[in-house]
Specification:
The structure is a homodimer.
Chain A (H helix, E strand, L loop, with lengths): L1 E8 L5 H16 L4 E9 L5 E8 L2 H8 L3 H10 L8 E12 L5
Antiparallel strand pairs in A: 1-3, 1-4, 2-3
Helix pairs in contact in A: 1-3
Chain lengths: 104, 104
């Protein structure tokens, strides 16, 4: 399992519309091969900065499978009108950690 | 619940030592008030770039409680010798999403 981190700065005043567009697009991710889940985080220090975190079974499930699919075109059509700048995308692998142990 | 994202670039060749130091420091987080869990992610495109993701009950549990504690001093003593640059810290709130629905 790997994670996609996409940092997205949204145009001023577009925050609610962007959030609605992501909500509308969730089924595109849930139907994609290798996608384990999607979370959208909104910045506290910079409230027009969002981080989309997507879990993929493999890097290629994102970079080849999803990006090469019709679903990606539909995803971008929904959200890109709200982008202030192009998303900054990085991928990472979990190294360690997890939930706080129970009973603490 | 909020998330802390700390992006940390580690000195070349220090990756294994940094990961060991974070593993050693996990109990400091698990004992901290409001900490719900810690994950360490290692970059794929830039393998000396790590993202530490910490769940906190409130922003102040991190910025006031943890940063003002002895545990923070011990955490920094363990990991800072491996920092290439100062960590870039942001906080965010979950807006939407989660695991992929079961049965897909």
């Amino acid at each position: 399992m790997i994670l996609e981190f996409a940092e997205i700065d949204v145009k001023a005043g577009h925050e609610a519309d962007f959030e609605s567009a992501v909500a509308q697009a969730l089924p595109l991710f849930h139907a994609a091969r290798g996608c384990g889940g999607v979370q959208l985080q909104r910045g506290i220090e910079q409230p027009n900065r969002y981080t989309l975190i997507v879990r993929w079974a493999t890097l290629e499930d994102h970079t080849v499978g999803f990006r090469g699919s019709e679903a990606f075109t539909r995803w971008r059509a929904l959200v890109s009108p709200h982008f202030e700048t192009p998303p900054r995308v990085q991928h990472a692998r979990p190294v360690l950690g997890g939930d706080r142990p129970r009973g603490r």
